[in-house]
Amino acid sequence: MTELHLWLRHEIRTTERRTPVVPSDARRLVGAGVTLTVEESPQRVFPAEAYEAAGCQVVPAGSWTGAPADTVVVGLKELPDAPDGPGESPGEAAMLRHRHIFFGHAYKAQPGARALLRRFAAGGGTLFDLEYLVDEDGRRLTAFGYWAGYLGAALAVLHHRGRLTAPLRPLSKKELDDALHPAPGDERFASLVIGALGRSGRGARAALAEAGLEPTCWDLPETRALDRPALLAHELMVNTVLTTGPSTPFLTDKDLAEPDRRLRTVCDVTCDVGSPYNVLPVYDTVTDWADPVRRLHARPALDLIAIDNLPSLLPEEASTDFSAALTPLLLEFGVGGEWGRCLDRFTEACRELGARDEGLGDA
Ligand SMILES: NC(=O)c1ccc[n+]([C@@H]2O[C@H](COP(=O)([O-])OP(=O)(O)OC[C@H]3O[C@@H](n4cnc5c(N)ncnc54)[C@H](O)[C@@H]3O)[C@@H](O)[C@H]2O)c1
């Protein structure tokens, strides 16, 4: 490994305690010759001292903006906003000059997607979006899905049983499982996982099993001709699909008003709100740790949980798994075919946008 300089940035969301690289993997990277700079981050689940002990240089939070041009900035979630310049063009401070690795949520016409790509185009930087770090068959190589599904299903069950207390806070798996185990007198109810064969789906099934439930499991074959009455006959549903194109919505406003509906609790792990590919177009804002549940319909009641940073509630387990998958890929940064595919997807997104926005041009 030659002269790779990675910069692990602080996450700006105050609830984000995860990190894409844990200290034990930081040690592995440093041992392989990578320079790893780590920003201080008050809420990260691992303290800065653990990275320092692993041979990393520790710097103040947010200092990546002044990092050398050849640095690769590594994070998980959104970058801090920066003011626009004259007109709609990104201002000096908004321009992104570095290579960045994080979840950009910028290729499915999500809110803010265009603005983010414009920031990269203006600064000449590159986004290596972790969602598009895939193998030759298009399968994701790094993902938090399992723990997202686990948490989503767990919160849905706790709410359905009247045991969810807000605000939510990060916890250990043992604490979560202790709350999830059925108490004497708890009734079984019909639950459904859609996207059951995926990472999140597997996590959701594991959590439901922990809660003493045996969910119905649907994946692509079962939703091709959607059996709406069957779906609405479940009391609890966890949506964990990964959509890459338009598909039939699983719930519509008409289903919410359906008087015979037994469905009472929905957890949308997918959280594609705002995207044209959203399979649950019955709500327009995600929920959060302070207010995890929103009533979508009064009679019959339907409650929604749609939290887009679920794995952050189990930050240690989620970070450790993710880091184990990402670290070998970081050791191949710029060489492995997965990074080339990731770059191609960014270039394509910029080009698509450029076709609609003359100000952007190709990246
Ligand atoms: N809320 C959160 O905090 C959070 C965290 C991580 C991931 N996610 C999201 O969860 C989603 C799932 O991620 P994953 O890693 O489990 O993906 P995955 O690719 O491992 O699994 C997705 C599954 O959905 C199935 N599927 C796709 N379209 C379907 C349809 N129309 N009907 C039925 N099944 C369908 C696929 O066959 C696959 O089995 C993604 O959108 C991801 O962005 C959310």
Automatic annotation (TrEMBL):
One Gene Ontology term of the molecular function aspect: saccharopine dehydrogenase (NAD+, L-lysine-forming) activity
Keywords tagged on the record: NAD, Oxidoreductase
GO BP annotations, alphabetical order: lysine biosynthetic process via aminoadipic acid
A cellular component annotation (GO) from this entry: cytoplasm
Active site: 77 (proton acceptor), 105 (proton donor)
Domain Alanine dehydrogenase/pyridine nucleotide transhydrogenase N-terminal: 7-151
Protein's UniProt keywords contain Oxidoreductase: yes
Binding locations of NAD(+): 139, 198-199, 219, 223, 269, 307-310
A Pfam family assignment: AlaDh_PNT_N
Cell wall biogenesis/degradation is among the record's keywords: no
Family of this protein: Belongs to the AlaDH/PNT family.
PANTHER family, per database record: SACCHAROPINE DEHYDROGENASE, SACCHAROPINE DEHYDROGENASE [NAD(+), L-LYSINE-FORMING]
Protein name: Saccharopine dehydrogenase
Species this protein is from: Streptomyces dioscori
Lineage: Bacteria, Bacillati, Actinomycetota, Actinomycetes, Kitasatosporales
